[in-house]
Design brief:
Layout: H1 3-30, H2 35-63, H3 66-85, H4 89-116, H5 123-152, H6 154-161, H7 163-174, H8 186-189, H9 194-198, H10 203-230, H11 235-262, H12 265-282, H13 289-304, H14 306-317, H15 323-352, H16 355-379
Helix pairs in contact: 1-2, 1-3, 1-4, 1-5, 1-6, 1-7, 1-10, 2-4, 2-15, 3-4, 3-6, 3-7, 4-5, 4-15, 5-6, 5-11, 5-14, 10-11, 10-14, 10-15, 10-16, 11-13, 12-13, 12-16
């Protein structure tokens, strides 16, 4: 497999998943679910993956990327077809964990491929290309989902957005290529404990920053449909606001190689947390669509370049043969917050409105930025 094929597969898979995630949230709202129920449904996107994250990461290390990628895309496709075939609120409680599990498998395998393909010095470039793929589909998926819902309804929109996953199932099933596997020695196999990874200098701080940023990223996709619906926006407008975020992410990732070479990675990450935290404090006080799009774009500028830098930092420190496991541990920590925070945010939003949710997200990022600034020298 080449990095170009991985990027192509990633665009189509994430386009389907990003659209699926928005449609699931708006479908739940369409069925008059409370903010708490929407939070439960969205939390299920990550709960199963959280339970099996480390085991599946080790599986990717052991068998390579093609099989897990195919299994992941097939799961996303099955979830989307299920919602189309049985368009009920209860269906979302099955489709959500199925789609989330599938995307987790694909994401870990794609990250492993980007890290292993080529030379070690190609790693940042590969992660940047992968990030561009995610930002492209992150813009197209929500935008197309909103337009499709307004045009053909929630269920048919889900079927239409499943096309990317269907194409990838065919491509992966027909593909015979595989990337090299770098398994640890027999001695290392017997000592594979997650706690050992957390003892590696710098890992804990990277995990803290990664969790804070990723939690904000996914929670933003959860709160915007609710906030937009509460202030009377259409599904198309909500999709465009989310699309503005994706467009900003794309712009930042086009510039990422230049930023990464000229600036220290930790300074970029800390600046991103401060900018994003400040933006979220302002967000709930705005109701005009142009300003909401501008704030969404600004938030995308803040968060857009962080993931490739974090992935590269983690892979630099990963023990031999444990790259996918490191990614899975990072994803487990992220999923833990993504599972619990939407539940808490949904309950908080139902009781007090969405303003405390936005302010809470902003405060988390600002505090994490301060902790990272103080602890980078000691943990690095």
């Amino acid at each position: 497999m080449s990095i170009r094929l991985i990027v192509f597969l990633t665009v189509l898979t994430h386009l389907s998943f990003a659209g699926c995630r928005v449609i699931i949230a708006l479908t739940a709202i369409h069925f008059e679910a409370t903010p708490f129920t929407v939070g439960v449904v969205m939390s299920l996107l990550t709960v199963v993956a959280m339970l099996f994250a480390v085991r599946w990461g080790r599986w990717v290390d052991r068998v390579g990327v093609r099989g897990p990628m195919l299994a992941g895309v097939a799961a996303i496709l099955a979830a989307m077809v299920l919602v189309w075939a049985v368009p009920r609120l209860e269906t979302l409680f099955v489709a959500s964990p199925l789609a989330g599990t599938g995307f987790f498998l694909f994401h870990i395998a794609a990250g492993q491929a980007a890290a292993v393909i080529g030379r070690p010095q190609d790693r940042v470039k590969n992660f940047s290309l992968l990030a561009l793929a995610f930002s492209t589909s992150g813009f197209l998926g929500p935008t197309l989902a909103g337009i499709a819902i307004d045009g053909i309804g929630h269920a048919n929109a889900m079927l239409a957005l499943s096309f990317g996953a269907l194409v990838n199932v065919v491509v992966l099933a027909a593909s015979k290529g595989e990337i090299p596997r770098h398994e640890p020695s027999a001695a290392q196999q017997g000592k594979r404990r997650v706690a050992d990874l957390l003892r590696i200098p710098g890992f804990r701080l990277v995990f803290l920053v990664s969790g804070s940023l990723s939690m904000t990223w996914d929670l933003f996709a959860f709160v915007i449909p609710i906030h937009g619906s509460q202030i009377g926006l259409s599904a198309t407008t909500i999709g465009v606001i989310l699309g503005a975020f994706g467009a900003a992410v794309f712009v930042v990732r086009l510039m990422l190689p230049l930023i990464a070479h000229r600036l220290d990675e930790w300074r970029v990450l800390i600046a991103a947390m401060v900018l994003s935290g400040a933006t979220l404090l302002v967000f709930p006080m705005v109701s005009g669509v142009p300003l909401l799009m501008a704030l969404s774009f600004l938030l995308g500028i803040g968060l857009g370049g962080t993931q490739p830098l974090i992935m590269a930092l983690l892979y630099e420190k990963a023990p031999a043969g444990r790259g996918a496991e490191v990614l899975s541990v990072r994803t487990w920590l992220i999923n833990f917050t993504q599972t619990s925070v939407p539940l808490a945010s949904g309950a908080l939003g139902a009781a007090l409105g969405m303003l405390p949710v936005f302010w809470g997200m902003g405060a988390v990022l600002l505090v994490a930025g301060v902790v990272a600034a103080r602890g980078r020298n000691g943990e690095r």
